[in-house]
Known about the structure:
This protein is α+β, with helices and mostly antiparallel strands. The chain has helices spanning about 10-35, 40-50, 185-205, and strands at about 55-60, 70-80, 85-90, 95, 100-110, 115-125, 135, 145, 150-160, 175-185.
Amino acid sequence: MTGSGAPPDRFAAARKKMAISAIACVAVVGGMTGLSFAAVPLYDLFCRVTGFGGTTQVAVAAPSRVLDRPITVRFDTNVSSGLPVELTAERRAQSTRLGETALVMFRVRNLTQERLTIIAGYNVTPHKTGVFFHKLQCFCFTDQVLEPGETREFPVVYYVAPELASDMNTEEVQEVTLSYTLYRSLDELIEQSETAAAPDALARRGG
């Protein structure tokens, strides 16, 4: 005799869903732990794919409708510790309409006399708006090489989806902030980690 509740096949489906979620979380956390030097880029990549933590979405076309409702997009720029570059947005804020395509330029300057390779990560706040913030063009998650002293401008083309206005969790939002952070590229992080580890390895071998 069985008690009341969902049929066995529904229990199986629920267990399968939980197992997949658990495996995904373990894989992400395990990967970050094993590659601690790449934790931030990996975390940003995970967020980009899942929309977690306010990470914006990638779009291939503009929406078919534009609402009259305005929304303000503010721009925040950051550089990881020890990375000798300067990152600025051409403006502090931009007023647009839901569903309308907008363009903003970001300027990156190499403050050294050496070639640098960098990579950008991003998110938006409030985090709940991340699924409605879509980019048609950006310079994120791609290695960018800066020559000594070079200054370069990168365009970001985006829109805030009109569905934001009809979602009960975001209908009151009038302003979002797009934040960009520059890091050393994953390849450069690996190279630096190997270089830093070499003296310790030699010391342990008595070299």
